[in-house]
């Protein structure tokens, strides 16, 4: 019996193993905001919104929460948001961190690589004005010093719910 | 007083007579030496204690003594003592003999001292900068000197020298600082001939924010929230290490309950990060179902964190003298129930991974870091344990862990699978520890008050999920921070990654990188 036969036999016997998603109660607010966001994205961007994330010196907590927003429970992708690997594929940049001097050029180059029309979203308190790192010799003091910013999502770090809520408010008024 | 034997050996065998020997704190021994004896003393302690350089840093003491102090920290784990070798360097002759050719684990610390203080490590084999990139920061401007002015950034700029491999058919692949995933920035320069990597030069520093400088002049209470943002995924470990340093200085003794609670929260931090790493390893070889499974488990732990402490990242939980969040019997019951479900799901996840032949093929014998190389680089924490370095601060230093019968997890193979196995084993052990500690939680206050902030210095340390996190804190007469040196385990471990990927193919780099799971911001400060 070939390997393929084995696999088929096993599949037929066992069925496809998967795990049902049990959506906890606390996700109700997320669901509601997300569905509204989906409509807003459909209206403003025709189909979906592609985002390229750039870390300019964050501690990693913001990244962790952005990744959490894409986990199977939140699954932000189903509302029409996807995180892309290249700025060339992006509609918007999502920037975290207070902009370390070492990242200024890379941030500018990433922005330049995004095709127009484009906009910049900042996420986390550091990205607004440097946050806890305000006044450091090595930070530029926020993304706004380098690029035009359309939306800021505050928090240290903002939770997936806050991320979706802020995106909703912003995209609705576009 | 076993550790005095070491000092005796230092004198008789190595001919080093300390100028000062002080032990104001029970677990620290200050060994002051002449500048000429510093190298000898470090080599001797490195050998006698079998300890890598745990930390090495400078302090600008020119305002008081017209000199700099350079300190090198070793751990005598069997003596439960930190040996801090210290020398003074006169302000008018800002250089010292490098020890990096003999003790490789000192190399990156010396480069750090050179760029931050302008103290030149003479004969250091690698004098490239780590954090103040040549392209944006001029030569001759040293931010951690006390007389540094933030405006001093004009001047000639340079360029970083990557290690070049030359020869027929060799090509370079530059990656970063902006990567394809949602991850911190770093630059990786691969030299490859065909598929296998023959050299990897890792350039970091992209998230340098000047944390150590910002901490200066702050009161410990005001500095606490900043320590939680040094490396966001280790918020609790970092703030706990900082608190311990300050608590030691102010003579604040923690209640048993506070000790236990800190251990519980520290293990909760380990749980969610281990899930993140385990899922990441699966994702980086394209095995997305277990990755998704791990991601939802991580979410369950972070939700639990939020329910117990109000923060998904356990921020705001540590305070000087203990913790801010208690666990009542009701919460303990819920904690135990939640962990039971999580552990059952976790065992499923483990089964998923180990029953896939193609997954095992990708991780087995991939990215091997051999024990002797790990020891030379001073690699510590979970990466070290996966290469057979049996070192875990929880084993020796903390009463709560002793009471719960802590078991250290090690492997010998040093490959991606070994690092995965250490994390899988540690996950189960952490669940056991939390359950045990929560069940045995002693009565008492969760936060001690009083104590007065004495000027002086102390070392705070804790075994975070990545490895040992060190905070050396010096307070001035007004109780403000004069100098704070932070060592995240990532700083020790990044060079290990550059070695582990050699002879592997570039497409395996992501999974090797994820199995090390190092912090960019913790390294860059």
Summarize the structure.
The complex is a heterodimer of chains A (174) and B (525). With 174 residues, chain A is an alpha/beta fold.
Question: Any descriptors?
Answer:
heterodimer, A: 174 residues, alpha/beta, Rossmann fold, 6 helices, 5 strands, 13% strand, B: 525 residues, alpha+beta, Beta Polymerase, domain 2, Cytochrome-c3 Hydrogenase, chain B, 3 domains, 5-stranded mixed beta sheet, 19 helices
Topology:
The complex is a heterodimer of chains A (174) and B (525).
Chain A: H1 3-14, H2 28-45, E1 49-55, H3 61-69, E2 81-83, E3 92-96, H4 104-113, E4 119-123, H5 125-129, E5 151-153, H6 160-172
Parallel strand pairs in A: 1-2, 1-3, 3-4, 4-5
Chain B: H1 3-12, E1 20-22, E2 28-32, H2 38-49, E3 55-61, H3 62-65, E4 67-76, E5 81-90, E6 95-97, H4 107-117, E7 120-122, E8 170-175, E9 187-193, E10 197-203, H5 211-215, H6 220-227, H7 235-249, H8 256-284, H9 288-309, E11 318-319, E12 322-323, H10 329-354, H11 357-363, H12 371-377, H13 381-386, H14 393-397, H15 399-403, H16 416-439, E13 456-463, E14 468-475, E15 481-487, H17 489-500, H18 509-516, H19 520-524
Parallel strand pairs in B: 2-5, 6-7
Antiparallel strand pairs in B: 1-2, 3-4, 4-5, 8-9, 9-10, 11-12, 13-14, 14-15
């Amino acid at each position: 019996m070939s390997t393929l036969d084995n696999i088929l036999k096993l599949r037929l016997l066992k069925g496809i193993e998967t795990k049902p998603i049990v959506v906890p109660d606390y996700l109700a607010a997320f669901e509601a905001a997300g569905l509204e966001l989906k409509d807003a994205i459909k209206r403003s961007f025709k189909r979906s919104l592609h985002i390229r994330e750039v870390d300019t010196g964050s501690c990693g907590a913001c990244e962790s929460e952005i990744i959490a927003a894409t986990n199977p429970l939140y699954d932000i992708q189903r509302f029409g948001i996807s995180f892309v690997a290249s700025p060339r594929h992006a509609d918007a940049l999502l920037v975290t961190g207070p902009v370390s001097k070492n990242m200024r050029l890379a941030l500018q180059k990433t922005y330049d690589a995004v095709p127009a029309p484009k906009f910049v979203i900042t996420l986390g308190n550091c990205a607004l004005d440097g946050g806890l790192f305000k006044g450091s010799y090595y930070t530029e003091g926020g993304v706004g010093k380098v690029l035009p910013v359309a939306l800021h999502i505050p928090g240290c770090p903002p939770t997936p719910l806050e991320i979706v809520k802020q995106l909703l408010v912003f995209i609705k008024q576009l | 007083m076993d550790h005095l034997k070491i000092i005796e050996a230092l004198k008789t065998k190595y001919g080093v007579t300390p100028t000062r020997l002080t032990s104001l704190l029970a677990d620290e021994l200050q060994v002051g030496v002449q500048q000429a004896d510093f190298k000898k003393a470090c080599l001797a302690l490195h050998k006698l204690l079998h300890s890598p350089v745990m930390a090495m840093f400078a302090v600008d003491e020119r305002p008081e003594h017209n000199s700099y102090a350079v300190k090198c920290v070793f751990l005598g784990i069997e003596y439960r003592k930190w040996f801090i070798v210290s020398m003074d360097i006169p302000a008018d002759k800002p250089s010292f003999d490098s020890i990096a050719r003999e003790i490789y684990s000192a190399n990156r610390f010396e480069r750090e001292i050179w760029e931050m203080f302008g103290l030149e490590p003479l004969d250091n084999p690698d004098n490239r900068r780590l954090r103040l990139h040549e392209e944006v920061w001029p030569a001759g401007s040293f931010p951690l000197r006390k007389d540094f002015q933030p405006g001093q950034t004009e001047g000639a700029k340079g360029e970083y020298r990557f290690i070049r491999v030359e020869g027929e058919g060799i090509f370079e692949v530059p990656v970063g600082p902006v990567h394809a995933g949602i991850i911190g920035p770093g630059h990786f320069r691969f030299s490859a001939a065909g598929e296998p990597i023959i050299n990897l030069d890792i350039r970091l520093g992209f998230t340098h924010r000047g944390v150590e400088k910002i901490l200066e002049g702050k009161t410990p209470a005001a500095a606490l929230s900043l320590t939680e943002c040094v490396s966001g995924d280790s918020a609790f470990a970092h703030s706990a290490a900082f608190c311990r340093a300050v608590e030691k200085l102010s003579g604040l003794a923690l209640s048993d309950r506070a000790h236990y609670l800190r251990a519980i929260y520290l293990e909760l931090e380990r749980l969610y990060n281990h899930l993140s790493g385990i899922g990441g390893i699966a994702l980086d070889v394209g095995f997305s179902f277990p990755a998704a499974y791990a991601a939802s488990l991580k979410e369950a732990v972070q939700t639990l964190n939020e329910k117990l402490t109000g923060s998904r990242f356990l921020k705001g939980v540590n305070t000087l003298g203990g913790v801010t969040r208690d666990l009542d019997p009701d919460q303990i019951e819920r904690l135990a129930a939640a962990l039971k479900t999580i552990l059952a799901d976790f065992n499923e996840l483990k089964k998923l991974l180990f029953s896939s032949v193609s997954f095992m093929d990708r991780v087995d014998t991939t990215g091997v870091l051999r024990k002797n190389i790990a020891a030379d680089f001073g690699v510590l924490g979970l990466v070290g344990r996966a290469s057979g370095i049996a070192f875990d601060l929880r084993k020796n230093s903390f009463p709560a862990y002793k009471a719960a019968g802590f078991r250290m997890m090690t492997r010998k193979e040093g490959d991606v699978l070994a690092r995965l196995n250490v994390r899988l084993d540690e996950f189960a052990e952490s669940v056991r520890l939390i359950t045990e500690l929560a069940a045995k939680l002693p009565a008492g206050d969760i936060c001690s008050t009083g104590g007065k902030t004495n000027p002086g210095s102390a070392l705070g340390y804790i075994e975070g999920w990545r490895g040992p996190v060190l905070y050396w804190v010096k307070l001035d007469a007004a109780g403000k921070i004069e100098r704070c040196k932070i060592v995240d385990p990532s700083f020790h471990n990044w060079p290990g990654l550059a070695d582990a990927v050699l002879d592997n193919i570039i497409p395996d780099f992501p999974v090797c990188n994820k199995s090390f799971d190092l912090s960019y911001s913790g390294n860059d400060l």
